[in-house]
Amino acid sequence: MRAMTTLYLTVAVAVLASCGTAGTTIVSRQRLASDAAGKLAFERIAVTSSVRQLTQADLDQLKDAVLARVYQPADGGVPVTLQLAVTEYGTGGSKMIVRVRVMSAARKLYAEFIVHQTANTLMGTIDQRSSVINAVADAVAQQLMAIPAAPPATMDARDYRA
């Protein structure tokens, strides 16, 4: 009887874990040069959206989340504008697509990429909107610091011997 309870609990945990999946894909059109990383001063961050579901408070939250994550050089650096344009947003925060451009006042393009963030909303127990906004901000900061993406987590079956 105890074995069946453990089995059911294990299956329930596996199902819930699979329902809470999320993924980030970054499509680079022009990757930030590694020698420019850490030398850009984001003097202006413009966040726009063509999506009606997002409020100004959501756009401000995205702006603040990105600003909190990007490195600002103490000595000034090259002044640039960071342009974020939300082009798609799924119901309940299941999907967000943001086009990002980094430009100088002289219209020099330093970087351009698109962040595709997806999440499964079946669990419904967390603030999905904030979670997706924070995940997008993490991806933007990662690209602006020229940090390579972390390798996917792997599991080794030898760790789960019965």
Task: Please give a structural write-up.
The protein is an alpha+beta fold. It has a single domain, classed as 3-Layer(aba) Sandwich (Rossmann fold). The protein has helices at residues 2-19, 56-69, 128-144, and strands spanning 22-30, 40-49, 78-89, 95-104, 109-119. It has a five-stranded mixed sheet, covered by helices on one side. Helix 2 packs parallel to helix 3 (128-144). The longest helix has 18 residues, at 2-19. The protein is globular, with a radius of gyration of 19 Å. Residues 12-19 have low confidence and may be disordered.
The oligomeric state of the chains shown is single chain
Strand order of the largest sheet: 1-5-4-3-2
Indicate the percent of residues in helices.
25-40%
User: Which geometry do the CA atoms define?
Assistant: globular
Q: What is the total domain count? A: 1
Structural class: alpha+beta
Beta strands, count: 5
Mean pLDDT: 78
As residue ranges, the low-confidence spans are: 12-19
CATH architecture: 3-Layer(aba) Sandwich
**What are the secondary-structure elements, in order, as H or E?**
HEEHEEEH
User: β content, as a range?
Assistant: 25-35%
The fold-level CATH name is Rossmann fold
Major beta sheet, specifics? 5 strands, mixed
N-to-C span: 18 Å
The CATH class label is Alpha Beta
